[in-house]
Structures are given as C-alpha cells and as structure tokens.
Amino acid sequence: MPSFATETRAAVDAAASLPLSRVMRRAPQTCSPATPVRAALETMRRLSIGSIIVSDEATRPVGILTLRDVVDRIVLEPGMLDAPMAAVMTQPPVSLALTDNAYQAALLMVRRGVRHVILVDAAGRVGGIVSERDLFGMQTTGVRHLSSEIKGATDLVAVERFGQEIHALARQMVLQGAAVGPLTAFISSLIDLLTERIVELELAALGEIGSGVCWIVMGSEGRSEQTLSSDQDNGIIFEPPAGESANDVRTRLLPVARRINEALDRAGYRLCSGNIMASNPAWCLTPEEWRNRFAHWIGSGGPEALLHGSIFFDLRALSGATGLAADLRAWLLPQAARNRRFLHQMAANALRNRPALGLLHRFATDGENRIDLKMNAATAFIDAARILSLGCALDEVRTEARLRAAGTPAGIPAHEVEAWIAAFYRIQGFRLSHQARCFDAGIAPDNRIAPDTLHDFDQQVLKLALEQARSLQSRLAMDYGL
Q1: Phi and psi (nearest 5°) for 119?
Q2: What are the angstrom distances between the C-alpha of 161 and each of 151, 230, 474?
Q3: Which burial class, exposed, middle or buried, applies to 478 when counting CB atoms under 10 A from its CB (0-12, 13-18, 19+)?
Q4: In which element (H, E) is residue 285 found?
Q5: For the segment 365-417, what is each residue's pLDDT rounded down to a tens digit?
Q6: Pairing with 367, which of 20, 28, 89, 437 sits 20 to 30 Å away (CA)?
Q7: HSE on the CB side for 176, CA within 13 Å?
C-alpha cells in the first residue's frame, strides 16, 4: 500500500506544471468597487471564503479583499463597515493568466508577499483565484511575514537571522507533504530575497561603482532548485566607471563580496568548498572578461571547462545591473549552440554519471547500501536538460523549463518530456524528505538514502523515476552519437 505522504505529494505535484485554470478549487466570487464592505463580508461569511475579488463593469479585477485585510483595515477602523469596497481593497491586485502554472504562482506569492493570486483570461477578465492552500494542499504560515520582513531589514544581522526561519518553514512544508515544484519555488524565492537584501545593503555604500555591479547566481540557486542543503555558487559582473581600471574596481569589490558571502554563510547557506563565489577574483569580472572565460571553456572542452560549464551555464542575474547578465547570456547561448564539439563533450561527460539502477531493476547502491540522490539521480536530469537547451540556444535555466522548451525543437514527444519532468520532481521530493528527516534527527543533511528503508511503494516510485533518468540519458546519447 502507498504511504499517505507519497500519495499526497504525488497528487499535488501533478498540479505543479498544470495551467492554473486546472489548479484552482472554486469559482471566483466578485463584487463591485461600490459594494458596501458590510455586504462583501456577509458574502464571504455565507460562502466560507477567505477572499473576494473587486472587479469593474467589464469584470476586470481592480482589487481584492482578504480576511487579513479585514483585520488590518476594517475591524479596528471606525465606520469602515459602511464604506465602499474601493476604500479598503488591495490595489492593484496580483494576477496571472489562467494558462500560467503553479510554479509561477508560488514565485509571485513570495515576491509580492501575498497568499492569493487572481487569474485572468486573455482579455484581462476575472477567470479564477488560487491560494496557498490550492497550491500545496495545506495551510502555510509565515511566508508573507518572511518576505516583507526581509525586504524591510536595515542591517545584515537582521537579514541573516531570517535564513534560519526560511529553513524552518521549508522543513515544515516538506514534512506536511507540500508539492515539490511550488515548494522549491518558495525556498529559492525566499533565499533570493534574502540574498538580494544583503547585496543591496553592501553595494549601497559603493556609490557609482555599486550601480554598475550585477550579482549573479549559478548552480542550484541559478536554476531555482535549491533543497534544504545547498551551498553558495555566485559571482559578479561589473562595468568599471569611466576613468577607472577593471583591476582597481575589482580590488574595491572583493572585500564587499567577501562580506556578502560570509553573511550568507551565517544565514545558513554554506561557503562553496570549490570557492565558486564572488569573493574569488576569478569570478568577479567585467563583461569582456566573462566572455573571454566562456569562449575559452567552449573552445577547449577540457575537464575543467566541462566542470565549469555544468555550473556557469546556469547563471542567472539576481540583483543590481541585471542587464549585464542578460547581455552576457544573449552572447553566450548562440556561441554554445554553434559549437557541436563542445556540446558532444558535455554530453559524454554527463553520461559518465549513471542513474543508480542496476541489473534486474535493482538499486545500484554503494558500499553502505545507499544511493546519492543528487549525483546518481537528479543530476542526470539537470545535465541533460542543460545540454538540450544549450543545443537549441534556449534562454532557460530551470530544469523543468529547459526540458519543456527543448522538446519541440529537439523533436521529442510531449509525453516523454512530461514523464521526465515528473520523475525529476519525484527525485527532488525524496531528497527534500530525506534532508528534513536529517534535520529532525540533528544530523547534517545530505542526499544519501538507504532505499531498503523506504516503503515498498516509495521504492517502486524511485525505481520508475530512475528508469526515466536512464531514458533521458539514452535520448542524449542518441542525439550526440554516444
């Protein structure tokens, strides 16, 4: 029999990539801006709903009122029960298209610090509403508090302490069976907010130099796929002000970058053991220096180049002069796509790391009867998705987005792509659950699980996910003649 946690996560995860029109659980309730607050509240009580959308005559959303707003703006304000909704609603409301997915909704909730997102059709009319409960199948707490508090923090000490709160909230959501796709969006978005605030506080003191700096993230953070055990992978792109040399500006930036890296470490995000961090002068470069670095990697295809390719091709702008990163990616993607030899070398390197599945459909474990779910499971999807997207010059970094975007130009049937994405999220779910249990047991979280400790049904799910990893690698081998 399947475990309850597995059934719950599987059911909710299936919705992570569905259009929001299929995720929402109820039809939206609307009222006009002129509706008295008292009447709107009576409707909310009668229908047992936590929000009501305010729309104009063309049914376009102009505002929203939630139960939290009732406490903040109505209960403690004399006479507001008889005011029109226009006086108390939140405006403009946060909205997405009906065709957007749960991952996008989760990102937006964290970024804007809200618990409801209005859905609109192609004409901008109200089409529905989704809440945190719709996305996760449970009630989350603390996300809005965390996002607003992080944004308002005025010193490093205040920001750093939120790192532990993010970890605690993420662990709670994992143990409650939250869907992996939206959950990783929540984790990564909160870490993004925390990092952005630290970077903003430090760069503000640099004046003109700070305005020409872009903080970039790579690896799992660049892909927005962080788990409960992630270290730092970051760098800087900077444009020297007129009259200043790159080396002089770099000398001034490196101590600042070191303070940022150390602040993130204190917040719970470990310093990179390989020193892939902005405080390393090798990764604090001008746009021209970054282009030269990438051109060397693509041209040489040596072991070091392939290692760096697996990290730096996932770069994403996080804070500051983000146009510098956009320009770098616009230059980089066609360079990689044109060099078939380099992509062939990346594919061959990726295929050396096989999924942990042996003969007769048995797990291929190490000497301690364990499987590394990162190296021998998730990485197969991550590496293949990166190579497929680079081959098509696609400006995507998330594994799911890369696989889906590469499907059509690479001639891959949609059902195969969806199976790979579902399997990837299943493996990520096992990683998160294992790491949460490690935290609860007071031991350092890792990615190594003993498959014989899993429920029989979970073992079968993991084996099927590993089969999909082998299928994806077979596709990669076929495409590159390996």
Answers
A1: -105, 135
A2: 13, 17, 45
A3: exposed
A4: strand 284-285
A5: 998 999 999 999 999 999 999 999 999 999 999 999 999 999 999 899 999 99
A6: 437
A7: 16
pTM of this prediction? 0.78
**Pairing verdict, β 284-285 and 234-238:** parallel
The span from the CA of 214 to the CA of 204, in Å, is 13
Contact 456, 406 (CB under 8 A): no
440-451 per-residue burial string, b: 16 or more CB within 10 A, e: under 16 = eeeeebebbbeb
Please state, in angstroms and rounded to a whole number, the distance separating the CA atoms of residues 100 and 20: 6
Per residue in 300-355, pLDDT (tens digit) is 878 888 888 889 999 999 999 999 999 999 999 999 999 999 999 999 999 999 99
How far apart, in whole angstroms, are the C-alpha atoms of residue 258 and residue 250?
A: 12
Is the preceding omega at residue 92 within 30 degrees of 0, hence cis? Answer: yes
Strands 116-120 and 95-97: parallel
Which amino acid belongs to residue 187? I
Note whether 96 and 45 are within 8 A (CB). Answer: no
**Strand ranges in 76-157 using DSSP code E only, listed in sequence order:** 95-97, 116-120, 126-131
The string of DSSP letters for 342-396 reads: HHHHHHHHHTTS--SB-GGG-B---TTS-EETIIIIIHHHHHHHHHHHHHTT---
What contacts 419, CB < 8 A, 6 or more positions away? 468, 471
Q: By CB neighbour count within 10 A (0-12 exposed, 13-18 middle, 19+ buried), where does 126 fall?
A: buried
Q: Which H/E stretch holds residue 150?
A: helix 143-152
CA distance 375 to 310: 13
Query: How many residues would you count in the chain?
Result: 482
Beta carbons of 52 and 90 less than 8 angstroms apart: no
- Read off the tokens for 419: 């199976």
- Predicted confidence at residue 381, as pLDDT, reads 97
Tokens at residue 115, please?
A: 């618990």
CA 126 to chain CA centroid, Å, is 27
Rg (CA), the chain: 24
**Do 417 and 404 meet the contact criterion of CB atoms below 8 Å apart?**
yes
- Pairing status of strand 213-217 against strand 234-238: antiparallel
- Buried-exposed string 239-253: b where 16+ CB fall within 10 A, e elsewhere: beeeeeeeeebbeeb
Left, alpha or beta for 79 (phi > 0: left; psi -120 to 50: alpha)? left
Contact 179, 13 (CB under 8 A): yes
